[in-house]
Task: structure prediction
Amino acid sequence: MNKTILALDVYDLKKAEKLVKDLSEYIDIFKVGPILFLQSGKEIIKIIKECGKEVFLDLKFHDIPATVQRAVESAKDLGVYSLTVHSCGGREMLELAASVKDRPKIWAVTVLTSQLTTPKEVLQRAELSKACGVDGVISSPLEIEIIKKTCGSSFEVITPGIRPLKADDDQKRVATPEFAIKTGANYIVVGRPIIEAKDPKEVAKNIYESIKGL
Ligand code: C5P
Result:
């Protein structure tokens, strides 16, 4: 599986469909978040799956445990590959979410990469997530190494905040694709650097080439 996950943060189904088709050489998992899901959730999931690709449903569930458990069951019925929950939802919520049988992978958000935090806080959230049976965490590239060291190499780390070049936007804790993969990330999540590029295919290709074989 290619290690770049594309964040399909667009409003328009046609635009999303074009990105899935144009970039399929370099991307195997497409992230559907609230922006697109609220516009055309089921349609885009169907399109991605018909292209033989996987869906990462990034709705970051954070609610009472029973509601999150049912949300995981509904996501499973949609056939998604993975989904996100907020680790700050707490132990009971994480455990119930993880208890769903034959469920998609669950990746817990430690702390959003747009927020400043401490490695200690991130690590506490990662350890809690692991103890509750979650498959991995979404975390900043700057914390990959310490999470892998503490939680073990089979605990997955998926990292947004990836910037091939210096960018001036809301992501505060950023790194290049090479740095993230070399440090042990299982997947990198890239959105605006690809989808807002003049030539998204060229940027996706460059990222693919830069981490191929690492
Ligand atoms: O456009 P950009 O490359 O910053 O996109 C990053 C994606 O990763 C966005 O869809 C954002 O919602 C998501 N994300 C994040 N930080 C997290 C979890 C998810 O930036 N902790």
